[in-house]
Specification:
The structure is a homodimer of 214-residue chains. With 214 residues, the first copy, chain A, is an all-alpha fold. Chain A is 75% helix and 0% strand. The first copy, chain A, has helices at residues 11-30, 40-47, 61-84, 90-107, 109-119, 124-148, 156-183, 188-213. In chain A, helix 3 runs parallel beside helix 6, helix 4 crosses helix 7 (156-183) and helix 6 crosses helix 7. The A-B interface holds A 32-34, 36-37, 116-117, 119-122, 127, 131, 158, 161-162, 164-165, 168-169, 171-172, 175, 179, 194, 197-198, 201-209, 212 and B 32-34, 36-37, 116-117, 119-122, 127, 131, 158, 161-162, 164-165, 168-169, 171-172, 175, 179, 194, 197-198, 201-209, 212. The structure holds a DNA duplex (30 and 30 nucleotides).
DNA sequence: GCTTTCAGTGCACGCTCGTACACTCAATAG
DNA sequence: CTATTGAGTGTACGAGCGTGCACTGAAAGC
């Protein structure tokens, strides 16, 4: 019989909490090592359960990794939503987007590190999950670009090509931000400034694209 | 006493050959897994020596990984040399470069896969070695861009920013080429064509950069 | 209130792992 | 010819791994 107000965690709640602990613990380990180098036993140990209890939640570390992709993509999806609520003019969109990018990376380092570390990492299933999500991200951006360039005669092929380039530029910035953190080689501002200029360079290319290729 | 013509492998030659076998075997394993998931024992086994003999060549798998970076960078360096022996006009440079990129990736898949897999992988020393080499690559490209845009009033800061963007675009293409191989999602021609368009878009942006920012 | 469910336990197993140590024996050096 | 060197051997160890299996005990279902 379910109480109207559960004063103490129910069975399902407790399970969910343990599951979340497993995911969180793995995310912490990712800071130093890659998924392939993290054992089921140490994750279970750190989460405070016995190794065999791990199987109540995931059938393997690889499966946990795939779930973690979803989990980690949330900040990225939030980023799109934030960026869309942005300002009207071209240049402002870029400035705004880069700023949001910087903030999201700062606030969700572990998630972004996981995604960049495993994007081309050793576990095929995880790679595939990340690739799928990023393709979604690119197609979202393509839609935005289509809206912005409406009536300017852009083919969907070229729009996607451009979105792809922009995503590549932004992901490169993300990775540099994560690396810079640890090595103090360049500070955040420098990286974001460069990224902003790169996106503006691309936008500039777009503005003369058809006059050069038509 | 060294013979004038060594008919049978000398001691040093034999050692070098074993060392190379260890590197090659590791490169083969990288196709399926990341460095962190490859054990010293299996590398030794596959190379035909006993595990403890591994230490005659490298002090750990991590150290072998760092050496492998050098080894794998050779095709990339060759790429620069090939591209520079290229043609004079702007558009031809891009077409030519992308073609060379495609060929190098096709001919040196394993090396490129190693670099992309470990670029943000779990071993800090390997990450650092790759980052250093790639920074060198970017600065080479910056020099080329400086030569091409000589007298057009480009700051070295903006040149580097642009080179950085171009490298990001090319690396993204490399990674897609490697992924496509296994999944047949897109064929090589499509990816290279897109990459060519992306570089051309950037070049177009460059041609109007100063009129827009000065 | 009795029964069922199931998250978490505890033990045991057969592996593989990195590495220490003493060794062999052919190529090299003097 | 003899002595040295050093790449590769063989054994052995302790530790950690993934996982199978029988279990416990509290919450949920009826």
């Amino acid at each position: 019989m379910p109480e109207t107000v559960a004063r103490i965690a129910s069975r399902a709640e407790r399970k969910e909490r343990t599951r979340q602990r497993l995911l969180d613990v793995t995310l912490e380990f990712i800071e130093k090592r890659s998924l392939a180098g993290i054992s089921l036993r140490e994750v279970a140990r750190e989460a405070g359960i016995v190794p065999t209890a791990f199987y109540r939640h995931f059938e393997s570390m690889d499966a946990l990794g795939v779930e973690l992709v979803d989990e980690s993509m949330r900040p990225l999806r939030q980023m799109i939503r934030d960026a869309r609520r942005g300002s009207p003019t071209h240049q402002d969109i870029i400035k705004n987007t880069v700023e949001i990018l910087g903030r999201q990376v700062r606030e969700h380092k572990a998630e972004f590190r996981f995604l960049s570390r495993e994007r081309y990492g050793g576990i095929a299933a995880v790679r595939r999950a990340i690739a799928t999500e990023l393709r979604l991200f690119t197609s979202e951006l393509t839609v935005d670009l289509a809206r912005i360039t409406a009536g300017a005669g852009w083919s969907s092929y070229d729009l996607e090509m451009t979105a792809d380039l922009m995503v590549a530029a932004m992901l490169a910035a993300v990775m540099e931000l994560l690396e810079a953190e640890a090595r103090h080689a360049e500070d955040e501002r420098t990286i974001l400034d460069r990224s902003e200029r790169q996106l503006r360079l691309i936008a500039l290319g777009m503005s003369v694209w058809h006059s050069a290729t038509d």
